[in-house]
Amino acid sequence: MRLLIADDHDLLRDALRSHIERASPGTEVLGVGSVDAAVTALARHRGIELVLLDLRMPGMNGLEGLVRLRTSHPGVKVALMSGEASPEDVRAALAFGAVGFLPKTLPGTALVEAISRLVAGQTFVPEGAAAPEPDSQLAGGASFTRREREVLDFLLKGCSNKEIARALSLEEVTVKLHVRGLCRKLGAKNRTQAAMRAVEMGLAR
């Protein structure tokens, strides 16, 4: 098994690598300190099954680093790591294709077990880590992330994806992912119908 840890804290990265390799003999763990380096490592080293990606690492820009890895290497599983993350961050990461969320405070044995589950194709999110906020609930139990709410506000103003990307300092591909999520949660077939549904549900503000 080959893993890639992308974290800008050298000591933590090296400690994680040592622990995983000791607890799981035969596992090779590579380490990099930025999103750019992670993209390069994935292109250079074949057979990487899982990337552990630090949420607050340089180049992440929110979740854009995750989107970049998922776009450039769609066949590689990516899980987020963080010392702290809001439920909104965790839900958004899962919506953008992350296979799980690993708190950096997770005990060593539990971490190795979680990694094994992720490599096997399961998801891993600690209980309560992705709990929805009560005031953001939609019909059917869905909920908006803070960024989806911002994108929806611009949709209701008739803005294009390019205009929304510029206003929120996001990549246009990221905005498209948010719009897709909004359409799914609102039961809409396209952005125009999503805006109409939002108005009907009293979500315009």
UniProtKB/TrEMBL annotation:
GO BP of this protein: phosphorelay signal transduction system; regulation of DNA-templated transcription
Keywords tagged on the record: DNA-binding, Phosphoprotein
UniProt modified residues of type 4-aspartylphosphate: D54
Domain of life: Bacteria
Every Response regulatory domain range: 2-119
KW Cell membrane (keyword) present: no
PANTHER family: HTH-TYPE TRANSCRIPTIONAL REGULATOR YHJB-RELATED, NARL SUBFAMILY
Protein name, as recorded: Glycerol metabolism activator AgmR
Source organism: Rhodospirillum centenum (strain ATCC 51521 / SW)
